[in-house]
Amino acid sequence: MNKGLSSLSSEARWKRFNQHFCACPSIDLTLDVSQISFSESYLSEMEGRMQEALAEMDALEGGAIANADEQRMVGHYWLRNPGLAPDAKITKEIEQTLDAIKAFAADIHAGKIAPPSAERFTQVLSIGIGGSALGPMFVSDALGEPHDAAMDIAFVDNTDPDGIARTLAAIGDRLAETLVIVITKSGGTPDTRNGMLLVRHALEVAGLDFTKHAVAVTMPGSKMDQLAVEQNWLKRFPMFDWVGGRTSELSAVGLLPAALQGIDIDQLLEGAAACDEVTRSKETQNNPAALLALMWYAATDGRGAKDMVVLPYKDQLLLLSRYLQQLVMESLGKRLDRAGNRVDQGIAVYGNKGSTDQHAFVQQLRDGINNFFVTFIRVLKAPADTVDVETDITAGDYLHGFLVGTRAALSGNDRESLTISVGTVDARTVGVLIALFERAVGFYGSLVNINAYHQPGVEAGKKAAAAVLDLQQRIAAQLSEVPQTAQEVAAALKANDDIETVYLVLEHLRASGRAGGTNETVPADARFTK
Fold it and tell me: What is the CATH number assigned to the segment(s) 457-529?
């Protein structure tokens, strides 16, 4: 790869900018990749591999088994274009679910479906984790208002009891008017179950019947689905086997909370479908998702050698980086390639927003270790009624100036970046951005020959957590009035290979009042009792 774009003349930079500028007027988006240091021959050298990636995407959209580990199709692109689905049954399921979401939201807003002790539901509380939370939270924050005309929305996205208590406290007296959505694909995700149980308890303490407030979004036949049927919850919406959590925002997972909040879900779907159409182009230069994937490859040497810093210069897009962390890192962070070879792939993602980052970590980006590339998100339209902060200068002018200036400052020190520009932030644009990054992730997975649609590391983490909880119960049963060290407890439980974990669990039990003992500065000296 060529390095040192800063050494190019102004004329050469302008020529490169024009040569590598991808304009997509049908989705009101442009992509500038000229600040990534790829050679003049790079795109032609990668064209064969890119065409293979495009062919794999075509096969995926056609219903091929894309997740070989689980023998599953991967069909999130069908959600915004049901006619693409490989059989009529799936098409009908998608269309019926969308109709049911719209009808349910309309009935809730009109008060046709109401809680027993209030005139209507005014608050939504969405319980989910990972893909069941990050997408809905991003869309809500990007497109919602402080007090939406339809319904306010809050989220429980962790198993932290203090965090859940804070969310419930913020809802306060409106608990009687709160519609609770429980989102879990398998129905057995512990974090989501825990959140549901704590919220259920809060409603019961307030004298409310949880089942008259509850809606399930889950796989038909799952544990959660069975519970909703048994307890006669208000409504159930399906999650589909062929949609992964991190690509589920445009399913009932994201569309139901958005519709209840009053967001135009048709525009979300339209934007995503329009972007899908543009990014099916076999002309790489005119395909922004293909170009993104190729730039990720160029910037990271095809092995994740650099991090992706996402800098949207718009407050509405604050949560975009968190959303992309899961989409990119869970999809691409893989130990093995599709042939079973160890490759340790992945791209780390972090970011906040401009111009906050001018006062946070841009100093390191400009002058520190060069281990990143930046993705700038530029929003062109500014409010018409903005007050001048200087003569003929608005606050929005400053924001744009910071973006362009930072881009130039990074380039001047040979720090790579790419810039995505959109006209405005509305439902259609958010749909476009979701689809753009989903497809770029798919293309990149093909380029580096990994399965972007499974998550063995996540599953390993869940199993490890379950093992710790099992050990915790055994430790609690082992404690007595006689003080014991962590090493003694471990020996009694035949867990000598993991004394450190035993100590951490004992420390947790003591801190939460379920064990006694001494708090020593050296862990080996600590004694624990029942």
Answer: 1.10.10
pTM of the model: 0.90
Specify which residues 377 forms β-bridges with: 312, 420
∠ CA 508-514-519, nearest 5°, is 55
Give every CB contact of residue 39 below 8 A, 6+ residues apart in sequence: 1, 2
Cβ–Cβ under 8 Å, residues 307 and 375: no
CATH of 24-61+269-452, one of 2.40.50.140, 3.20.20.150, 3.40.50.10490, 3.40.50.10400: 3.40.50.10490
Is 412 exposed, middle or buried (CB count within 10 Å of its CB: 0-12, 13-18, 19+)? exposed
Which are the contacts of 370, defined by CB distance < 8 A and separation ≥ 6? Answer: 306, 414, 415
Per-block mean pLDDT, blocks of 10 residues, the chain (530 long): 74 95 98 96 98 97 84 94 96 98 98 96 97 97 81 96 97 96 91 96 98 98 96 97 96 98 97 98 98 98 97 96 97 95 97 88 93 97 80 90 94 96 97 98 97 75 78 91 93 89 92 88 92
User: How do the domains of the chain map onto residue ranges?
Assistant: 24-61+269-452, 76-263, 457-529
What six digits make up the tokens of 113?
A: 């479906």
Write down how long the chain is: 530
pLDDT at position 38? 95
Q: Is residue 170 within 8 Å of 281, Cβ to Cβ?
A: no
What burial class does residue 82 get, using C-beta atoms within 10 Å of its C-beta: 0-12 exposed, 13-18 middle, 19+ buried?
A: buried
Indicate which residue of 359, 390, 481, 494 is catalytic.
359
Give the contacts of 184 (CB within 8 A, at least 6 positions apart): 128, 132, 192, 193, 217, 218, 222, 224
d(CA 312, CA 324): 12
Q: Catalytic annotation on 330? A: yes
Tell me whether the CATH fold assigned to 24-61+269-452 matches the one assigned to 457-529: no
76-263 CATH choice from 3.30.230.10, 3.30.1330.10, 3.40.50.10490, 3.10.25.10: 3.40.50.10490
- Please pick, among 462, 488, 508, 530, the residue that the annotation labels catalytic: 462
Q: What is the pLDDT of residues 168-201, one digit of tens each?
A: 999 999 999 999 999 999 888 899 999 999 999 9
In the set 61, 177, 249, 330, the catalytic residue is 330
C-alpha–C-alpha distance, residues 324 and 348, integer Å = 10
Helix (H) or strand (E) holding 31: strand 29-32
Residue 1 confidence (pLDDT): 37
Residue 258: per-residue pLDDT: 97
Q: Is 89 a catalytic residue?
A: no
| Tens digits of residue pLDDT in 52-108 | 999 999 999 999 988 777 788 999 999 999 999 999 999 999 999 999 999 999 999
What is the model's pLDDT at position 386?
Answer: 76
Is 52 one of the annotated active-site residues of the chain? no
